[in-house]
Amino acid sequence: MKNKNKKIPWWMPEIGPKEYGLLKKVLDNNFTNQGPMTELLEKKVCELLHAKYAVATTSGTVALFLALKAAGVGKGDEVIVPDVTFIATANAATLCGAKVVLVDIDSHTLMIDTEKFKRAITKKTKAVIPVHISGRPAPMKEILHIAKKNGISVVEDAAEAFMSFSDGKYLGTFGSAGCFSFSPNKTVTSGQGGMLVTNDEAIYRRAKELKNQGVFERLSGGDDTHETVGFNFKFTDLQAAVALGQLSYLKKRLVRMKRNHDLYKKHLAGVKGISIFKSDTKKGIVPQWTDAVVERRDELDTYLRSKNIDCRKFWFPLHAQKPYKQSDVMFPESAKIIPKALWLPSAVTMTDKDVYTVCREIKNFFNK
Ligand SMILES: Cc1ncc(COP(=O)(O)O)c(C=O)c1O
Description:
Blueprint: H1 17-29, H2 36-49, E1 53-57, H3 60-70, E2 78-82, H4 88-95, E3 99-103, H5 114-120, E4 125-128, H6 140-150, E5 153-157, E6 165-166, E7 169-170, E8 177-181, E9 194-198, H7 201-210, H8 237-247, H9 250-267, E10 274-276, E11 291-294, H10 297-306, E12 312-313, H11 332-337, E13 341-343, H12 352-367
Parallel strand pairs: 2-3, 2-4, 4-5, 5-8
Antiparallel strand pairs: 1-9, 6-7, 8-9, 10-11, 11-13, 12-13
Helix pairs in contact: 1-8, 2-8, 3-4, 3-7, 9-12
């Protein structure tokens, strides 16, 4: 008999035979450090995103740090960060020694408010980090225009937007650099890991030497000439093997993520109490996760959990977190909307039937 109470997770990584095969190859070669597998992964990511250069690194956070640092961000500079994002976005700027300047969001999209972004620019502003939440695009046209006018670098936080396509390009390829995450709740995982992509050779060279103890070429660990201060943010071929294996299911996953979103959108349309953010999947947007605005969010979350359905509540706005604490008054939109924001189950392992089950239970909750 089928398990009637099968848990529907918010997200679930999926590991297949390809990863095992490639991992074995790396282990058999006795070369676990960053090497040919990592180079192959970087090449594949460039091909997929139509980008010139890619730099694999230990996490999405580090990709952001390297992109900012390569853009010249340092002590005394200000970096503009939307108030609604994972804290890593701001922490990467802090790690550069810069001051994080939080900007409120547009509550209709959860993306940075471009008017407020414009007003937050000072002489010290060096960069802005638009965040493509859940694979939905930040307003790049306006952001790029404002940034260009003010001589500011645009580093895209595309951690949640791998392969999401908008206005003729892949997200992460609009700014001076785009940063992706390969953590376990992303489309492609390498355990932990990240990728910086750029079309700017100078950014590429600088990011590469920064991640590699100040050496652009492969490090020997012995008589190397270190051009600059650098760090050890190298990837490993073990991780690259897993990520490359994951890429072989990419097409299927992108279809599934779009379908999850489209089914929610269709079957929850008109349900009073919940609305799903719009993602134009037909035009190439890939919703990493389906995000919704929900009345009585915490009650719904508890109800769904009692039915073996896991959602994920949104991050608290950054202005509410200790390291970046500020008054709610400065962030009326995020303060208003985030207590209602919820990610619905969005795993690549979901079936249509799972999505129907979630929709049915959401309707049961609101019709009670
Ligand atoms: C919006 C956003 N930015 C940055 C990151 C950081 O990526 P990582 O966890 O790979 O460091 C994440 C990861 O979850 C994210 O969702």
